[in-house]
Amino acid sequence: MNLKDLDRKYVWHPYTQMKDWRNFDVRVIEKAKGSWLIDSEGKKFLDGVASMWCNTWGHTRKEIVNVMIEQVKKLQHSTLFGLANEPSILLAQMLVREARGMSKVFYSDNGSTAVEVALKIAMQYWRNVGKSHKTKFVALENGYHGDTIGAMSVGYIPNFFANYKKMLFAVERAPSPYLYRRPKSMSKDDFVSHCIDSMEKLLKNHDDIAAVVMESGAQLAGGAIIYPDGYQKEIKKLCERYDTLFILDEVATGFGRLGSMIEYIEQRSTPDIVAFGKMLTGGYLPLAATLASEEIYNAFLGEFGDYKHLFHGHTFAGNPIACATAIANLQLYRKERLVESIGKKSRVIEKRLREIERMEIVGDVRHKGMLVGIELVSDKRSKKPCKVKNEKINYLIMKESLKRGVFLRPLGHIMLLIPPLAISNKELDLLLDVAAEIIKHIQKKV
Ligand SMILES: *Cc1c(COP(=O)(O)O)cnc(C)c1O
Question: Looking at the structure, do residues 90 and 179 belong to the same domain, yes or no?
Fold first, then answer.
């Protein structure tokens, strides 16, 4: 049996209707270089979603791979339960230097768990300081924080999580600043005020809120919804005013996606706890980190018998290979002035998006840094999500992109362009060409 058939026989893919997968022309990726994935038949595909939003440099970047190899030879894994290791120590120091206002680093191995840890820290913080009635969380509509139970609970993508509702804990919801889908009667400014006022009302009327949890800078899985200027800072101020912790999820936006190294610094909204993942290792290995401020951390100090310490830990926490990879990755950010280079690329994207914006089925184009969301609609006035007869639009986009030598994975009718941050201008042009071609192709079918 060839690999494609073996895949269909044995592998259960994430977020995939496996019935459709049987008929899908599966691509088996064998190796990759730069922005290009290369499959078992030698075909090349531009990695248009940065291997699920985590790739920084493109693939097989020498400086990082060499560090990985050296670390593999020296120490593959040793536990943080009772022991320490050099890469995890040095990485923590680097992270605390970057993430202003944070002073301690708690390691895990994926974004969902980094969020779980943030929730548990917030919950226990209030118990430890004698306010154990503060146990509820407020989160945003359209937020996404991962797929474990706590992360799903604070997340809000009804189609994703409806099946699991009974196992999730209750969360207070504030509206998402999704300007494109605001009520017709409201101006943009009115709507942003409405979102902030709704949050204030929630916090004012509940004295049992442990924390407000939201993505930093933009909601990605919710549809590439970019926050309006000043919004995040206002939410942070409300958390201070109403004695609530502020948890930011920078799993997708940390380390450059929106053109900033740390997005909360850009947004002038320092959280109490922040979660990082995805691009922390440049997308080469699973690693995540939850950072907390000194004040939060100090509340966990006490006598052993008081049980004030954090009851959480993962087998592979602080894995030396992953941490060494992250160090090499972050050093390269500095050496190559990567974040500065995004400004220029972002302007290239902006120019190209103006053509796309005018196309018939394009309802809204959202762009910041190296994040692009193109919302396809059946017509611009009704804003009804675009549908194609007898075909699922996300499969259609995937299929059409692969045909053109690009890999795209949209969110339903929202096309996402989330390339590796170090993608070349030429490759960016190709990505936008293909996006435009696919939209034209769909336009003919609508
Ligand atoms: C991807 C993502 C997560 C979950 O990270 P995993 O590594 O997939 O568990 C959490 N929050 C945000 C904002 C994400 O984009």
Answer: yes
**pLDDT of the residue at 279:** 98
In the reported structure, the alpha carbon of residue 354 is separated from the centroid of ligand 1 by a whole-number distance in angstroms of 30
> Domain containing 399: what range?
3-60+338-445
The minimum-distance atom of ligand 1 relative to the CA of 277 is 7
Cα 385–388–389 angle (5° rounding)? 135
For residue 116 and ligand 1, the question of a CB distance below 6 A is answered with: no
What confidence tens digit (pLDDT) does each residue in 296-338 have? Answer: 999 999 999 999 999 999 999 999 999 999 999 999 999 999 9
Instruction: Tell me if 201 sits within 8 A of 241, measured CB to CB.
Output: no
- CA 215 to ligand 1: nearest atom: 13
Which pLDDT tens digit goes with each residue over 240-283? 999 999 999 999 999 999 999 999 999 999 999 999 999 999 99
State how many domains the chain has.
2
Which CA distances in Å does 310 have to 219, 223, 232, 289?
A: 29, 34, 28, 15
- Rounded to 5°, angle at Cα 381 from 378 and 386: 15
Substitution candidate for ligand 1 out of 116, 140, 145 with most atoms within 8 A of CB = 145
Domain boundary among 311, 336, 361: 336
Among 107, 251, 257, 411, say which to mutate for ligand 1: greatest number of ligand atoms within 8 Å of CB: 251
pLDDT digits (tens, 9 = 90+) for 201-252: 999 999 999 999 999 999 999 999 999 999 999 999 999 999 999 999 999 9
Cβ 110 under 6 angstroms from ligand 1: yes
Which residue's alpha carbon is at the smallest distance from atom 10 of ligand 1? 145
DSSP 8-state secondary structure symbol assigned to residue 227 = P
Residue nearest to atom 15 of ligand 1 (CA): 252
Domain end: 301, 319, 336, which one?
336
With a 6 A CB cut-off, is 145 part of the ligand 1 pocket? Answer: yes
Flag whether pLDDT at 147 surpasses 90: yes
User: Quick check: 251 and 287 in contact, CB under 8 A?
Assistant: no
Are residue 174 and residue 218 in the same domain, yes or no? yes
Q: By the 8 A CB rule, do 374 and 439 touch?
A: yes
CA of 153 to the centre of ligand 1 (A): 14
